[in-house]
Amino acid sequence: MWKWISIAIIVVILLVLAILLSRIRLKLDIAKHDNDDRAHLEIKFLYGLMKMNYDIPAILITDLKKGLLYRLDRNKNIHKIDATVDSGNIDTEKIKQFIHDIQVLLKGTKSLHRWIKHTLSHVTMSKMEWSTNISLADAAYTATSTGILWGLKTTLIGFASSFVRMDCTPKLYVVPYWVDRLRFTTTLNCEAKISLGYLIFSMLILSYRIWRVPGGPEAWKRVFSKKTENRQVNGEE
Length: 237
Description:
nine-stranded mixed beta sheet; alpha+beta; single chain
């Protein structure tokens, strides 16, 4: 009797350790070819047994009032059969609301920025490839824009490397198109991973920081319940 109980306990402990030692892997692919914009995010965890896929097949920038229109597809996620579509727009009002929500969460959490920085330091970037081709229909302007893009890319990668671990050498390319018309294409491919066990630990720390602030749990509940209601309204539309 005790022998089988001991075996069961050992098996459970090994399973828990296997789960905690597994990694969450993220793969992001973004491609822009002139007016064609596409993005795909794949999340794998539990050794690839669980997958989540998100696609943005189109991004349309309209005017200042409507802002940026988008469509988000969730394809074959955890249950491998569900597929939902969200669409909406990002305008100035939503940006203001987003900034306000961030301020609310900062006030409702003890040292939230420190928690974010510490959590990101455990993210490992295993692949980074960013290629851009550009033409401004003029040789001088194209050459100048190429240099500006190089500087912008290296600055952004340097900034990102101060937050996450770079386990790879970023491959950056900027290629000028010597043609007499405007043209812009770019592709970004990156992969990152983080320990599932550490992420669970980090979530527990976040919960502790929220509970330490008076009114912290209520602040988070207000922000995320409002976002859920907005998604439901958009879905009904």
